[in-house]
Amino acid sequence: MTTYRVNQSEVEEIIDTDVDNLHPFIIAADTIVTNKLTGKGLGDDLLKEITRWLSAHLVAIRDPRLKKDKIGETEATFFIGKEGSGLDSTPYGQQVKLLDTSGTLANLGKKTASIEAIL
User: Which of 1, 18, 37, 73 has a C-alpha 20 to 30 A away from that of 113?
Assistant: First the structure.
């Protein structure tokens, strides 16, 4: 059995969700952190926190957070981040960017450019 950096109860400490099984989100977050941040000079404790907040980010995409609530004449608006805005689409993802001091995860999916000089 594979061991991951975080477990369901650790993720539930930072996100309240109706999703019963957080395991798929934890697997995805742990895989991303392992593949993208190994060797970037971040300690094990920090990698664990990044994994935890990234797991919560993925959960929040699946189970959007309540942004506005109205009881009289019943109204609810959900926080759904701007599509294509990556980690900025949830407060959890924004925390991931803060924790990842290498900047690696913040730059995922961004286009890169290079200039080559011919002499």
Answer: 37
Give DSSP secondary structure letters for 93-115.
Answer: HHHHHHH-TT-TGGGTT------
> Considering the entire predicted model, what is its pTM?
0.81
- Whole-number Å distance between alpha carbons of 1 and 11: 20
Give the H or E element holding residue 37.
Answer: helix 23-37
Report d(CA 62, CA 90) in Å as an integer: 11
Q: Collapsing DSSP states into helix, strand and coil, what is residue 39? A: coil
Average pLDDT over residues 50-69: 83
- What does each C-alpha distance from 100 to 50, 56, 87 come to in angstroms? 7, 15, 12
